[in-house]
Structure formats: structure tokens, C-alpha cells
Amino acid sequence: MMLAQEATPLIDWEWIGRNMGEIVDRTWQHLSLTAVSVGLGLVISLGLSVVALRWRWTYSPITWVTGLLYTIPSLALFALLVPIVGLNATNAVIALTSYTLLILIRNLVAGIDGVPGPVLEAADGMGYTRRARFWQMEIPLALPVIIAGLRIATVTTVGLVTVTAVLGLGGYGYFILRGLNTFFWTQILVGVTLSVALATVLDVGFVWLQRLLSPWARRTG
Amino acid sequence: MTVWESIEEFLAEPTTWSGPGSIWARLAEHVLVSLAAVVIACVLVLPLALWLGHVRKGSDIATAVVNIGRAVPSFGILAIAFLILVQMGAGIGEPWAVLITLIALAAPPIFTNTIAGIQSVETSTLESARGMGLTEGGVLKSVEMPLSMPLIMEGLRIAFVQVIATATLGALVAWGGLGRFIVDGFAQQDMGQLIVGATLVGLLAILAELGFSAAQRATTPAGLRASR
């Protein structure tokens, strides 16, 4: 008989109802860890990309170092940061930020490199300064590629935040770890489902943002 | 106790170097399960990807696979696989949940890179091959596969490095591997074990990356090497 199995349902809705407050708190934690890490990653990547674009020879060492950081498994990076910064959100943010760099720098540089030369000449001819040309011509035209990088970085970060559960954080990963320790399906499924949902929502959000920011490219999506 | 002292203490313990929980045993577990996962993923995925690439279909499937694969956290897949297997009667500490998760993780990059590689072969090249009398199987084997080898190997590299990294999480579901030292280090607040474990995991991942890059160069057909 399979009835014995059905006695413990996969999803315990009552548990979800009782823990709504905790779910909201963890949502906020997951979202803020992701936002701070990707935001910080974008700022650092912009700086490094500007360096790489101006002094070409620096591109290869920059991607080499960020590639090395990207290779180190998250659990190991969190652990290595413990003696330096301790077990806290700073640790998580440093590690998560470092994982965004390679993706963002590659796309920033590729995007800006992809801006056609004649456009730049036109900008120069119209009297744009180098800085104005960068912010008003190169960045907007590179936007689709930059946002493609932001989407990858954000979705990856949302997944990695779950591992910060070992630091006592975790966002939705907290539910996954707790569920594992107590063999409680509901907690694991809530953690995984909400994490995937958050990644999807942010991903779709970026697609909208791109449409909003580059109206001239709407035809191709 | 300073960090250095606790590292020295961990390294001085005999159990660190011999027995089932030693560095060597954990390293062997880690590497063996990772290799097995990549090999199994290849067996499962390569035939389909080669065929889809050859008939010039599957780009949409590949994109969907990548997007879905990225959104689902590996830790989540691992937790779900572990709980299902335990309920089916698997023993705690067995590697199956980790193996399944790693296969699921290795499959998308191999799948998408293979399709992309095969499809990147130019139509004119294929027409010449067919004009020379190659069968469809011959075109795939002697033209498309060698020409797409760099991209296929790139997919394997991404898969292998990712698998080596994620095998670390196996310790969170009571399995071994090098992640054991990190998870136990956190749990027992044993800084020495934590740092040694993390260093080993980091080094292994970097070695896997560098080793595979060398293998990639070796498997690039001679004709393609000059252009790189």
C-alpha cells in the first residue's frame, strides 16, 4: 500500500503559512546579497574594463586573475576568507563579487569593442570628449552585451548565495540546509523553488531594463 | 591559537595523512567521482548533441538547457537528489546523490558546446565533403567532429572544472571528498582543517583548469592550430 507515504505530504502548506515571516526575511537577505555583490562587481568591472580598453596589454592579465578567482570553488573561497574577515556578510559579498568579475569584464570589453569604428569617428567629429563619447556612445551601444553579462552574473550569484548557508547566511539556502539536516522536504523544496523563481524574475527584469534603455534596438529584442 | 598554529596542528595529526579520512583518500574520492560524472555525462549527451548539430537543429534546445541549468542552484539539486535517494533506501555517506548532481551539472556545457561546434562548420565545407563522396556519417566523423574539436573540448573543460568545484558541496550531504575538511572545519570551528581543506580544493580546481587547457591544445587538429 502506498498510503503510508501519503501520510507525509511533500509540501506542508501549514509549515509555509507558519513561517511566512522567515520566508520574507530570507527573501530580503537573498536579494540584498545578490544586489550588493553584482552592484559592487559591476563598479569594479567597469573600472578594470576602462583600464583594459585603454592599455590593451592589461586585458590578458586581468582576465587571467579574475579567471583564477572564478575557478576557486565557492565553499573554499568562503573558508579562505574566514581568517581574514570572519564569518559574516562581508565574507559572502567579497566571494560573490569576485565571481561576477570575469563574466562582467568579458562582456563589457566585448560590448565596447563591438561598437563600430565609424560611430566613434562620428562622435569625435561632433566634438565629443573622450569621456562623453564613452558614456553617451560606447556604453549605450554596448548595452545589449553588457546586460547579457549582467544577466549571467546575476543568475549565477542567486544560485551561489544558497551556499552562503554555511556562513550562517544563505537566503533561501538556509531552508535547503535546514531541510537537509531535518530530512524535511517542504523546506528544501521551498528553498530551491524560491531560488529558481528569484533568478528567473531578475533575469526577466534585466530583459525589460534593456528594452527600456535601448529603444532603438527593440526590433531585434 | 593562531591560524598558523592550528594549520600545523592539523597537518601533524596522523589521521590527516593515513586512513579513510586522510587527505589522500578524500582526494581520490573527489577526483574519481568527478571523472565518473564527466564520462557518464559524455556518454549520455554526446550522441544526441552530435546528431542534433549534424542535422542543424537544437540551437533553441541548447539555449533553453543553458538558461534552466544556470537558474537551478547546484546545492538545491544536490539536496533534492540526496533526499530522494535516502527515501529510496540509499545509505547516508554513499556517493550517488553527488554523482547524479554532477552529471546534471556536466551535461549542459558538453551538450551546448558540441551543438555549437558542429553547427559552426561552414556549409561550403560540408558541400565540398559531400561532393567528394563522403557519406553523412563520414561527414560527421571526418569533417564536422575534427573541426569542432576545440569547442567540444571547451565544453568538456567547463564541465570538468565545474564538477571538480561542485563536488566540494558533497560534504554538505554527508559524502566525503575534499569538501569534508571544509564542512568539518566549519562545524568544529577547526581553523586548521578549514584552511587546509579550502587550499586543497582551490589548488585542485586550478590544476584541473590548467591541465585541461593543456589537453585542449593537444587535441586541437594540427590544421586548426596555426590560426589560433
List keywords for this structure.
heterodimer; A: 221 residues; mainly alpha; 10 helices; 79% helix; elongated; disordered N terminus; B: 228 residues; 11 helices
Please give a structural write-up.
The complex is a heterodimer of chains A (221) and B (228). Chain A is 79% helix and 0% strand. Chain A has 10 helices and no strands. Chain A starts with a helix and ends in an 8-residue tail after the last helix. The N terminus of chain A is likely disordered. With 228 residues, chain B is an all-alpha fold. Classes of the chains: A mainly alpha (221), B mainly alpha (228). Chains A and B meet through helix 4, helix 5, helix 8, helix 9 and helix 10 of A and helix 4, helix 5, helix 8, helix 9 and helix 10 of B.
Present the secondary structure layout:
The complex is a heterodimer of chains A (about 220) and B (about 230).
Chain A (H helix, E strand, L loop, with lengths): L2 H4 L6 H6 L1 H35 L4 H13 L2 H12 L3 H25 L3 H9 L4 H32 L11 H10 L2 H29 L8
Chain B lengths: L2 H10 L1 H4 L5 H32 L4 H13 L2 H14 L8 H24 L3 H9 L4 H31 L12 H9 L3 H29 L2 H4 L3
Helix pairs in contact in B: 1-10, 3-6, 3-8, 4-6, 5-6, 6-8, 7-8, 8-10, 9-10
Question: In sequence order, what are the helices and strands of chain B, one letter per element?
Answer: HHHHHHHHHHH
Largest sheet of chain A: none
Instruction: Report how far apart the termini of chain B are.
Output: 52 Å
- Taking all Cα atoms into account, the compactness measure Rg of chain A is 21 Å
- Secondary structure class of chain A reads mainly alpha
Strand-residue fraction of chain A? under 5%
Largest interface (CB < 8 Å): A-B, 39 and 39 residues
Rough outline of chain A: elongated
Low-confidence stretches of chain B: none
Helix-strand sequence of chain A:
HHHHHHHHHH
Strand content of chain B: under 5%
Count the E strands of chain B: 0
Number of DSSP helical runs of chain A:
10
Number of helices, counting only DSSP H or I runs of 4 residues or more of chain B: 11
Q: Provide the helix percentage of chain B.
A: over 70%
Q: Which oligomeric state applies?
A: heterodimer
Shape of chain B: elongated
Radius of gyration of chain B (Å): 21 Å
Q: Structural class of the secondary structure composition of chain B? A: mainly alpha
Average predicted confidence as pLDDT of chain B: 90
